[in-house]
Model the fold of this input.
Amino acid sequence: MTGPSRRNRLPGGSGAYPLSMHNAKPNLASALVGHLRAQISGGAIPPGQKLPSENELIAEHGVSRTVVREAITRLQAEGLVYTRRGAGSFALTPPPPAEPAAQALVPRTVEERRQLIEYRVGFETEAAAVAARSRTAQDLSAMDQALRGFEAAAGNAAVSMSCDFEFHLAVARATGNPYFGQAVENFGPSMIAMPRGRLDSADTITADRLGSVAAEHRAVRDAIASGDPHMAAAAMRMHLGNSMLRLQSEAGLGPAL
Done:
């Protein structure tokens, strides 16, 4: 019988199994997340620099491709990494140190995500209305770029979440009011109501769900482009209302959508 495979070792090179095989993958992913987070926060990987490729991370840390993708997805949810399809993953500017009371809340449970969407309905509906009056051609171009990225994501959870966030950030910036943009930036990609289980498994998004969200984003973009604040606000409210229903459905709290 052969010895332990390098892929199932924890970082450190000992080859020992301090935890059961059942728990190996989550702990390997957590260790890789901690390593990359420290490099980004400490400046070893400065903002804008490309992270090592999947193959390089696999070789360096002795983990599987699934573990690497899960780690990158978690870093995206923390707002530390941005992934561009076909180009790789890049470090973002880490959030500045803050007092514990001043740190942004990060939704973790289904109820917390429901509360966040409830909050977003208020300010993002108004942001869409303001954007309809203030948007520029450059703002619409930014929305279109995020839409194209989302539609080209082919259901990849990490890429879809990143492009979803970029679309909402583009809408907020189109208001010309920096406070709207700051509100979205403070939450980062974690504001997108992606089911935790899907992120943890590096799974794909179903074609039906992807198509629904893409169509709703397109409706928001077109309403803003039309210059009609009421139509833009209604489109955003509809999108976020459907996001609430999708969240509840995927958590088993409502009918399947």
Observations:
- Residues 107-250 form a domain with the Four Helix Bundle (Hemerythrin (Met), subunit A) fold (CATH 1.20.120.530).
